[in-house]
């Protein structure tokens, strides 16, 4: 085994926002040689003091590394930053937020330039990077052998979850989880608005709310089993007909309390439509099908 | 201590839907004398076989009990069922689903008839009744001394949480938690719709989704602290400006994948409005204020 084989892969990191900087620090701390580049060069200075090489251009940064990691503003920025870089023989790991379609097109673009490609979707905020116990992780998609080859290096800043050979899969799962988060926060926003002026201390209500939503999370597994089997009426605990019977009370309460129903109304309407279509004996699985055009 | 003092309070239970029946069973199992009445008398038969007394009229049922519990279709049904009953000296615990305004009006109605009153909001489905480890509980509101007096009896079918002297409080907290649940399920519905045709087994995705939402639940406490302090920019982990930057990706992905954005769009629009109003350095607390008219 020669020196090159025993040394840790060299990382080229393009994009030093809060997330890119956190990633660079994690790889530096683990002993990887890291070359950084950022459009605004000043953001590289603190990392240089911590042992990173700085590159004057993105092309220079790419040339210095084995694994090229992009964490830029958007997909267009990736194309612009790498326009003049020689990617042949490189492995490009694109952690820039984008759509599945953008990731698929970026993979084709990278392949045309002689690079192998992985797309990543980061399920963490910057303070969770390099903190294994934070539970943060990154979805990766693209050729499985590229992922397998770099898994150890990729696992340095955060956990890794392989999402599939379709380059768009990481972005798809990333967007799916973020969308679910926004739905939960929409419900939480409505709930807090309802009780904002009520008697119970808001922190006591927060405990009840957090416990309640945590207790409901396992229902997600039941939904998956129903989607898998195609049988939407087995394992039903609280059917849509019963839930829909409560809809007028939910809407009327919000109106009486002066709370806009905009965040909760679309789901309640979808539920009532599903019941009207004769599926009152189901839970939510059938509503998932209704959402797909 | 005489026989009356040592015996368990007599329950009059009006309304034998799935929930009312589960409540009756729990009190019977704990040794309470239970008299039941239901508009359709046949529903009382199984309970009679288990030891319940059956009453031919609601008024007769009310006369037989110390604690009158209503678990009917809606608030109007409560007024109708009890129209001919003598409520003087009774304690009425109304577990019928309704709005806070309905509970307040029902309290005044009960007081005018000489009864004390508690309103309840059941945070459980029938299979959780009489199963302490299920975590199900009931919000109660109204005069605290009435609640304190009956707490032991009320704790038989499910846990008890006192929500305040305002008779509407139990319904308000009930509706708030159900609304939050619907928001979470709306997000889950959208997420499942996105990944429905993707490569990863749907059950594997369900595990990621359940873990993700469970991990996010503690953010609810941060929101409560911010609402309490009025300082919405302390403790911010992922600010609205960063979250709003990802909104086009979320919407575009749904459109590309053929998934209707109706369930998630209102929250994303509210987020963008809050950022446009100059609050990009906050998380969601300020959006709660925007929802109140």
Can you give a write-up of this model?
The structure is a homodimer of 293-residue chains. Chain A contains 14 helices and eight strands. By secondary structure, chain A is of the alpha/beta class. Chain A has two domains: 3-165, NAD(P)-binding Rossmann-like Domain (Rossmann fold, 3-Layer(aba) Sandwich); 173-291, N-(1-d-carboxylethyl)-l-norvaline Dehydrogenase, domain 2 (Orthogonal Bundle), CATH 1.10.1040. An eight-stranded mixed β-sheet of chain A has the order 3-2-1-4-5-6-7-8, sandwiched between helices. In chain A, helix 2 links the parallel strand 1 and strand 2 (34-37). The radius of gyration of chain A is 24 Å and the shape is elongated. The relative contact order of chain A is 0.08. At the A-B interface, strand 8, helix 8, helix 9, helix 10 and helix 12 of A face strand 8, helix 8, helix 9, helix 10 and helix 12 of B.
Features:
N-(1-d-carboxylethyl)-l-norvaline Dehydrogenase, domain 2; 293 residues; disordered N terminus; eight-stranded mixed sheet; Rossmann fold; homodimer
- Biggest β-sheet of chain A, characterized? 8 strands, mixed
> What's the overall average pLDDT of chain A, rounded?
96
Helix content of chain A: 40-55%
Radius of gyration of chain A: 24 Å
Give me the count of strands of chain A: 8
Q: Low-confidence spans of chain A: pLDDT under 50, at least 5 residues? A: 1-5
**End-to-end C-alpha gap of chain A:** 56 Å
Report the order of strands and helices of chain A.
HEHEHEHEHEHEEHEHHHHHHH
The tally of structural domains of chain A comes to 2
Strand content of chain A: 5-15%
Largest interface: A-B, 98 and 98 residues
CATH superfamily of the largest domain in chain A: NAD(P)-binding Rossmann-like Domain
Oligomeric status of the shown chains?
Answer: homodimer
User: Could you say what the CATH topology of the largest domain in chain A is called?
Assistant: Rossmann fold
